[in-house]
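Notes for week 9. Today we move from apo structures to complexes. The key idea is that a small molecule is not decoration. When we ask for a structure prediction with NAP present, the ligand SMILES becomes part of the input, just like the chain. The input block below holds both the sequence and the ligand string. Read it once before you look at the output, and try to guess where the molecule might sit.
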Amino acid sequence: MRIALLGGTGDLGNGLALRLAAYTNHDVVIGSRDPDAAHDAADAYQATLSERGRDVKVTGFENAMAADRADVVVLAVPPYAVTDVVDAVASGLHADDVLVAPAAGMRRDDDGFRAHLPSAGSVTALVADAAPDDVGVVGAFHSIPAGRLADLDADLGIDTLLVGDDDRAKRVVSGIVDDVDGLRALDAGGLANAAEVESLTPLLLNVARENDGMRDVGVSFR
Ligand SMILES: NC(=O)c1ccc[n+]([C@@H]2O[C@H](COP(=O)([O-])OP(=O)(O)OC[C@H]3O[C@@H](n4cnc5c(N)ncnc54)[C@H](OP(=O)(O)O)[C@@H]3O)[C@@H](O)[C@H]2O)c1
């Protein structure tokens, strides 16, 4: 499967690109608003992987071209940008493509991080509203720390919750997640449950902030 990471120049894009390219057979395509930045990031990820003896091709394109080349498109961009980015790449999305939303709506004050959800109810719902009807939308990866993903020596041992109304799209994302050693996908229900899933992220960031050694904290459900 070909997976485009839009905003793949950022922290989550870095972590996902390295993990997916290092430990699965999926093709990774980096997207950016700036094609040069996409090429540079793709080259840098490829070099990191090559140093570890994994010779795989990582390519980079402007976001719409990256989406056009992919079956699964991850919106690794800030929450406030998701609607604009979906609009910008919509012409490159094809029937049965899967759009993945990892963004959690939150804000920060002096005491920590709080859930700050858009009027649509969740960022995943914003993405579902903006996406073409024949594209499946799944909320995923909200609570997976980018730093731990990018440290290829780190054991993951963490879960990611999937939310969305399209069961086929959830199966596709679940398959990709489960291809990464140490990651597990759990179904958290339909789109109506996305706010609860996104609200886990500020909770984890508060735990990380208040406790030594918890910098890249994730969760595992037992
Ligand atoms: N960091 C984490 O540990 C983590 C974990 C789970 C989920 N997430 C979620 O994943 C998403 C990405 O997180 P991140 O930490 O990687 O964010 P980030 O580094 O701040 O941004 C990622 C990329 O988004 C693009 N971008 C920034 N502003 C934009 C705008 N106004 N319009 C379009 N694109 C824009 C940039 O790429 P270009 O300039 O190259 O276009 C940037 O490199 C966020 O929604 C976050 O909530 C993050």
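The CA atoms of residues 74 and 207 lie 26 Å apart.
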